[in-house]
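Comment thread on ticket #2218

A.B. wrote:
> Attaching the input chain for the structure job we discussed in standup.
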Amino acid sequence: MRKRNRRGERGVSLLLAILALMVLTAIAAGMMFMSSTETSINSNFKAEETAYFAARAGVEEVRDRMLATHTSTVSALLPTQLPAAGGKVLYVLQNGVTAANVTSISSSNPMGDDELCHDFSFGGMTSTPANVRCTTLPSGSGWYVTTPSVAPFPLEYKWIRVTLKANSSAPYTVDSSQPVGSQVCWNGISEVALPTGTAACTNLIPGALPVYMVTAMAVTPSGARRIVQQELAQTPTSSNLPGGLFATGPGCVALDMAGGANTGSFNSNTAGTPTNPPSNVVSANGNVGANGSVNVGGTSTQINGSIATNLPASIGTCPTSGVSKTGNPGMGPLVNLPSPYVPPVPPLPNPLPPTSNVTYNNTTLTAGAYGNITFKGNVTLTGGTTANPAVYNVNSFNFNGNANVTITGPVVINIAGVGQSTVVNMTGGTFANNTYVPSNFTINYGGTGNMAISGGTAAYAVINAPKAAISFHGGSNFYGQAIGYTIDNQGGTNFYWDMAANSSVVTGSGSFYEISLRELSY
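C.D. wrote:
> Ran it. Output below, let me know if you need it in another format.
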């Protein structure tokens, strides 16, 4: 038998084993790599989804807090103008986040607001192309205000930005026929850009309310970022004011007319060139009313219009009757309101004016923020235009030493009334609105202080103070409109309602409606 010499094959089994081990090692390494990759993908996906829903949680927190009825409302901080170098941007900051984190743009800071330049251009910002992060923000700190989040536990969203929407705040314009910088309004059906020359959304027909853009950024510990943006507005509702003098209070004698006061009306829009007295004044449509009861006293007192009340429309004793009278005054028909008339309450000036005392004597005052003003001598309030009235944010004001305050053009006075029981006292002088258009001198006040009104030969004004106690003094004529919680006109001031001011009062109802929601790629 022939034998083969297999000495040359020694070590082959070892070589094959090593090769097999290498193959198995490569397979194991590949499987481990694939497993690690899957884990990383899942981790990144989880982080991105966490950031997305955290950002959604941020916009929903602010959406809830925008309601004036919320226990931690931000309604007083909501912007009233489009962003500009002087303010109008609100940031709600999560715990541990500072304004410096938001306003610093760098590669090492993932929390910087590097999206703002795509919505607005102001304060020296540099625009960047779509889907490219911003590289600059406005200079200084005067363009924004901050407030803390009230989330019960830390979430991944870092900040929520609230602004009004402009015609150019999205990749597309709402109305290409209007300027790109126009404010956007919501009429309950669609967004509309505020036309040139129109001062506010509430002046549109049909009435509308501002659209807010709420933008939230979330950043997870792993560095994942998501930004979502929501457009919000309340659904506008409107109702007509029942009377030019109207008291919102529900109590007895919410409105007291006596001392020979007479009422009538005119229309500042149809009188041609306004005159003093108005050329179309009539002894009719001088309607008055209250949610509570109305008292009319004195034989020479004459209500040349209807008397509206939410109580029973009868003459008798409050609360079983909505109207009481003494003597034999003249009165128009009684009107029963089916429900209380609830006008909007003017918000506090934002930012709040100072509370220091200051006196102005024989001078001209320009628009701005002032504390507790005392007017003496001849003082002129410089007016603006109908579209852009001169705005005076004051804490309170009073006339002293036979002051004579003259209004030369459209003026709006917003009163804060911080620490003041009497926010307006005109008994020490008179005012003259020389435009003879009441809406050109508007006084807004949302507090519960007292207001003593004394006119003169050209007392044309609109007073919006639905929570204040208003009293008229001096027995002159007052042209325009006044809303207060209580109104005392026992001094015989004649009232003439400007029917041009009797437009629908537009208010918001319910929660803020989500018009749109989008995610931003930055």
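A.B. wrote:
> Thanks. Noting for the ticket: The two ends are 85 Å apart (CA to CA).
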